[in-house]
Each structure stands twice: as C-alpha cells, then as structure tokens.
UniProtKB/TrEMBL annotation:
Name listed for the protein in its UniProt record: Flavin-dependent thymidylate synthase
Cofactor binding summary note: Binds 4 FAD per tetramer. Each FAD binding site is formed by three monomers.
Catalytic activity reported: dUMP + (6R)-5,10-methylene-5,6,7,8-tetrahydrofolate + NADPH + H(+) = dTMP + (6S)-5,6,7,8-tetrahydrofolate + NADP(+)
Organism: Jhaorihella thermophila
Keyword Methyltransferase carried by entry: yes
The keyword Methyltransferase is assigned to this record: yes
Pathway membership, UniProt: Pyrimidine metabolism; dTTP biosynthesis
Length: 302
C-alpha cells in the first residue's frame, strides 16, 4: 500500500484530534475512520465520513410503521424483517464516504454502480504517480474454457514469468513516454489531458465514493461474490469487514438474506414442491432449460 507523506500526515492529524458531537456515532465504525486498509499491491480503502447506524434504519422504518412498533419488535428483528421483505428505503438512511485508491480497469468496473456520488483524481490537472497493479503470480491465469468473462488455470513457470515481464515492461515504458510528453525541460510538451491517453489501464487512480447502505449492499452482493473478478472482489471484501463493524444487525441480515441466500424462479419453486410430494422431477419435465436445471441442481444440492 502506498500512502503519500501528505496523506499519512493528514490521517495522523485527524485521528489525534477527535471532535465532540451530538450526532449518533457507531463505535464499530469510529475505529475505521481515516485509517487506510491495504488492497492489492498499492491500493487502499479508507472511511472519510459516515452517517447513521443500525438504530437509524429502525428509526426510519418506525416513522412509516407508526408509534409503538418497538414494543413488539427489537431492532435486530425489525432489520431482519426489512431485509427479508425487500423494504429498502430505511437502509438508505445510512451513508458512507470512502477514499479508494484502485487500478483504472477496476474503477471502470466499479463505476457501473451508478447509484453513488464520485469525485475522481483528475489527470487533466495533476500528474499521476508511477504506480501500477502487477498481479501476484497466483492470480496470473489463462482464459477460462467455460466462462467467457473469467480466468481459468493459473499460469506456471516460464509462461507466468513471460507474462509478468511484459506487464512490468509495458507499464514502465508507457509511463516513461508519458513523462517525456509532458516534460518541461526546455520543451513545450503535451497537455496533461492528452498525455494521459497513453497510460495503461493498470495505473492507479483515486476517488471519493459516497453511497447509501442500500446501494452499497447491492454493490457488495455482486462484487464480493465468488464469481466476481478477483481484483474488485479484494476491495469488496475489505468493505464487507468495515460494514460488518458499522451496522452489525444489518450486516448479519444481509449475509443471511442476500449474500448466502438463493433466488428461485417460479419453475424452480414448483419443482421443489413436487419433489417434497415425492414426485420424480427431471430436466425434461421441469420446464427449465438445461443450463437453468444445472443451476437448480447446484442450489438444492442434487
């Protein structure tokens, strides 16, 4: 992980001067404030600010449910009910602002989650650092033979070394040319906004990313999944740990009803009911395609 001296000094100063407040604070989140959690080789995630906690979710729900709900349901039970029945608005009452340092190709995946506020480091005004993501050998893999958008077997020996050397050499060469194009050593040089086009997608960028808890859960459900690309999953896994400390009741409900749950189609539900009645159900009489039938088998453990 690479923090600049200025960033580290800012973190040290902020953590050394805690402020009094009348607002609700989440003790689990306070310990994460400003600290940089390392990700990949040069990246990090750190919490800049947050709003709300588990109680804020319940407070919002009880506004619409009416006075007196708390006497019949505790907070955790209410949160689990909300998650189980897809009542998403109360979760939007919690927000978090993250400072993330990540490779550009990961940022391009991340930005597809459009229900957030983003402010990215501008290479029009500033010069990007010479920092590139180079995967560890155990993550250098060939194209999957069964998944067109994923990786398969890990490369070994000379082949792995060849690929890694290309990645390192190309990154260094592109950055050398970037510096030469914007050089001011007696040259007019190229504008930064144009010179940046020559940089590779594995160079690191930074941004502030602010999102409410409902949309953050949607991000984590997709990007912390085992099928997600490793590099963005590494960031999602770190954020999962932060969220678990921030809103523990909501996190446990999210794990139970989203992360570790399964969605069944109408045909799948019908097949489960027929199986429970003792019927012999096959792909041919299930009403499902061969691919959907295989997915159904994985879900129910056939």
């Amino acid at each position: 992980m690479s923090l600049s001296p200025e960033q580290q000094a800012e973190i040290d100063a902020l953590r050394a001067n805690p402020q009094q407040t009348l607002r609700t604070v989440a003790p689990g989140m306070e310990k994460h404030l400003y600290l940089a959690h390392p990700v990949l080789d040069h990246g990090f995630v750190r919490v800049i600010d947050y709003m709300g906690d588990d109680a804020a979710i319940c407070q919002a729900a009880r506004v619409s449910y009416g006075k007196g709900t708390k006497s019949v349901q505790n907070d955790e039970g209410l949160i689990r009910y909300l998650m189980r029945h897809w009542h998403s608005t109360p979760f939007e009452m919690c927000e978090v602002k993250l400072h993330v340092k990540l490779p550009v190709f990961v940022a391009r995946q991340w930005i597809r989650h459009r229900t957030a506020n983003v402010n990215e480091y501008s290479a029009r005004y500033s010069i990007l650092d010479r920092e590139f993501y180079i995967p560890a050998p155990e993550h250098v893999a060939a194209q999957s033979r069964v998944n067109n958008q994923g990786r398969g077997e890990v490369l070994q020996g000379d082949e792995a070394a060849r690929v890694l050397e290309i990645l390192k050499a190309d990154s260094a060469r592109c950055y050398d040319h970037y510096e030469q194009m914007i050089s001011q050593d007696g040259q007019q040089g190229l504008a930064r906004e144009l010179a940046r086009m020559n940089l590779p997608a594995n160079i690191y960028t930074q941004w502030y990313w602010k999102v409410d808890l409902h949309n953050l859960f949607h991000f984590l459900r997709l990007r912390a999944d085992a099928h997600a690309q490793y590099e963005i999953r590494a960031y999602a896994d770190v954020i999962c740990g932060i969220v678990a400390d921030w809103v523990p009741y909501a996190w446990r409900a999210f794990e139970d009803y989203r992360m570790n749950a399964a969605s069944l189609s109408a045909q799948m539900v019908d097949c489960v009911r027929r199986m429970l009645r003792g019927e012999q159900v096959t792909q041919e009489n299930s009403g499902m395609s061969a691919r959907e039938w295989r997915e159904f088998q994985d879900i129910v453990g056939l």
